[in-house]
Structures
1.
Amino acid sequence: MVFTTPAIHALRRRFPDAQLSYIVEPAAAPVVLYNPNLTDVIVAPRGRGLSGMLADVALGRRLKASRYDIAIDFHGGPRASLLTWLSGAPVRIGYEIAGRGWMYTRRIARPRELRRRHSVENQWDLLDALDIAPPTRSIDPVEMPADGATIAAVEARLRQGGVRPDDPIVVVHVSAGNPFRRWPIEHFVALIVKLARDDSRRRVVVTSGPSEGDAASRVIAEARSTLGEDAAERVVSCGEFSLAELRALFERAALYIGGDSGPLHIAATTTVPIVGLYGPTLPERSAPWRSDRYPTASVDAGELPCRPCDQRVCAPGDFRCLTRIQPEQVVEACLYVLRSRG
């Protein structure tokens, strides 16, 4: 979702007077809800069974009645392909997909192998037919505007957690829903303890996704225990954050650290220095897409015969692409981006 926002910006530049609509499922809607380049955001819940199918057909009729000239399917899944076809747009652009390519009027080849090419550039292939120049990070960065009310709510939560307005905040996003992107808990603890000890004013805010709440609680408890009573308050727990709240939190932060998952890319929509941890994925494909003016460091285990992988089965069985990344490497990357930021 975040990686499509540069294309939104480019489409608005190419068609300044067009009605530009974006169809999105509810969970990811906050990414585009306040995008100034969109005329309309259509939130389409995913239903099940017959009722879900009927709802999609009804949405297709609504799209067709709106008489769109162009429909672009960035997703490529069965539901997205169907809605693109049901829109009835005379120009329907999508990937050449077995069994569904016929739903598009312009089909773009998509190699099956994992190329060392950024996902934004891969998606940009869909825009070539519209005479849109290749993307650059400075002109077309990822975007997710913050909501003022959400910013104020997050500030209040930080105050309740003992964070003062002038305290530098480091956000550490623990783990990921995908086990192939899950850095060991003990590594997170060592990293957080080091960062908290290095600066008595620094506050480390630990976040996680809904499925990783227990892991985050464990990291917080173990880090506080290691730091001892005098420094335990430097590790902050503010509960779970929504996508919009994460965006507001990152706006306030001095540093973000996390694996290759959604929050890292939401952080990239701000100017916060970022340290990304890459296991089975490659920074060349999914590093933050933003101007080089904003410090970013990517940490990985280096070349491995099994990397990148499709994240279905770990061939060695020990997830070495992540477990071999040591806390000391991440600390060094943190110091690098902080020095770069000044």
Note: The chain has twelve helices and eleven strands.
2.
Amino acid sequence: MIDKELNEFLPSAGLIQKLSEFGIEKTFEEGDVILRENAYSNSIPIVKNGAIRVLRTDEDGREILLYYIQSGESCVMSFFGALHQETSKLKAIAEEKTNILFVPIEKVTSLIKDYPEWLNYIFKLYHKRFEELLEVINEVAFKKMDERILSFIQKRAELTQNKTITITHEALANELGTARVVVSRLLKQMEDEGLVNLGRNKIILK
């Protein structure tokens, strides 16, 4: 039986059928760690519904948000890591309740031969991730912290389709790689400018 959730994103019914046959579906709750840094992965995750945020952590435990993996997408870093039997360089966390289809890497490589559109799918995701990483570099290098905070809030609102963002100042600071006091000061400034409203562990985009 063809997986209707995947059918919206992948063009080939035959490919979807094979992915559904080979894959193992798992459900993660909001905040669950799906993949840790330095861990090995022997499968490729395809998000059926929900969202994953992907982060990079430095030696001091500080994190920075790199990108989101949304419904119908996969993690190309997991693909290449599993393909070459390398440990993960990133950490993946469920942004909300998320259903993921894990396809074994040995099946993935055989699918490339039988379904050229599968390789095209991987390359499209690689291109998208590359552009998102360039945007992260651009923000870190050239944008002020208040601009980065507003960009983060706007992206989260677009992802969740909700202008009310549930997050603590400390968590927001961690994802942007800065200090909580800096985030709190800038959020108050943004509230005074009429860009957001602040609540307890909530930020409302205006």
Note: The mean pLDDT is 85.
3.
Amino acid sequence: MQVSVLTIAPAAVTLTQDLPGRTSAFRVAEVRARVNGIVLKRLFTEGTDVTEGQVLYEIDPAPYQAALDSAKGQLARAEANLTTARLKAERYKQLITAKAISSQDYDDAVANERTYEADVISGKAAVQTAQINLDYTKVTSPVAGHIGISQVTEGAYVQAGNATLLATVQQLDKVYVDVTQASSDLLRLKRDIASGRLKADDSGKARVKLIHENGDIYPEEGSLEVSDVTVNALTNSVTVRAVFPNPRGELLPGLFVRARLEEGSSPDAILVPQFVVSRNSKGEPTTLVVGANSTVELRVLQTPRTVGNQWLVSAGLKAGDQVIIDNLQKIRPGAPVTVAPTAPPLPATASTATAH
């Protein structure tokens, strides 16, 4: 019987993997109360962008201003006492040289001076603490980003002990996409790159594309930043994190997306059409090739993933093999065949392999 064949010729293929995940903010800052008091003013509009250091709330500063004034008074008293004690110690130093006073009197004067020095240090610390608490009455944004709904209104009493949540600021100029990948896939990827079967990009980081729930591809390309070092014992998977630029604010935290990880490129991949691959009784993929003496030979293949409408073959075929592509129902292994002069054209397919 005459059959048409496809002669195997290795080709370069980019390998990718689609993984489901969700977006999250690049930075999330919870604005919380750091002093107790009544909220006097809210100084921002909900749902707008704020800058780092922008004042968001004003808490009643009166008690903290009073505490600062009291601390300054205590510091002034300590400094005055220190001045007197220091002058006395200087006079006693001259008198002890002339042996006009006892050594005990001089020692007492020096100790008194050091005591007031300690009081001044404590007073300065008290002033600094009071100033810090007064500054905390003006609640500022720790990062630049998009602020959400205010959790308190004017007149609300907030507490530092409970760290009352006032608002949340999220930085969205970049976003994270966290996906889970089977640990076996991660190990296979590292092994293939180490052996040279796959080639990573120049930076050594896999490039990532984002696919929306409706199938649209996000125009900005991301990069794989980090993978967790611990395997989840329940799912046998690891968490992989990618970073995507978000200049137009299209990506919001919590979106369900699919991340297409570009794992690397295989310079000598073998591809065969899906329709020439069938399954044997064990469920193994097989195909028919023209073997020795122009007889049909059954080959068992390893087909880890697809490339468009073709299988990527990792074992079972080699360059130059002639895969039979027609009359597959009429021939059996061992049957003699003749190869047709020309093979019919095959449908065009993509050059990117996606794991399924």
Note: Residues 62-97 form the longest helix (36 residues).
